[in-house]
Design a protein that fits this description.
Number of helices: 3
Helix content: over 70%
Radius of gyration: 28 Å
Number of domains: 1
């Protein structure tokens, strides 16, 4: 699903950035860069499908943010769990070593 959602997002980001830079840095007029804004807004889909494109683009962005956040939380939980197990393993090793030392002292 992500490859399908990322392509329109990349087109939107690329055309938006190039549009802004062309106007600001290169001094192009609005008419000269209108093609970029048409692509950015999805005007090539026609008047009926343009709002659908914008809506699906927004939903795709939100979906990718939510999924990415969920993956990050899962990673954090897994990392914390591994750290906890490592700490428990060290504590268990220290406890076992203390038992061995105590047994050697009593013998």
């Amino acid at each position: 699903m992500a490859p399908i959602a990322v392509l329109p997002l990349l087109v939107t980001v690329f055309t938006g950035v190039v549009y802004r830079l062309a106007k600001s840095w290169f001094g192009l007029s609005r008419d000269q860069v209108h093609l970029l804004m048409s692509i950015h807004e999805g005007e090539y889909f026609g008047q009926m499908l343009e709002p659908v494109y914008v809506l699906l683009n927004g939903i795709g962005l939100l979906w990718m943010l939510v999924k990415g956040g969920a993956m990050l939380v899962h990673y954090w939980k897994q990392t914390l769990r591994l750290r906890s197990l490592t700490t428990q393993g060290r504590n268990l090793f220290k406890f076992a070593r203390q038992l061995v030392v105590q047994r050697e002292e009593t013998d």
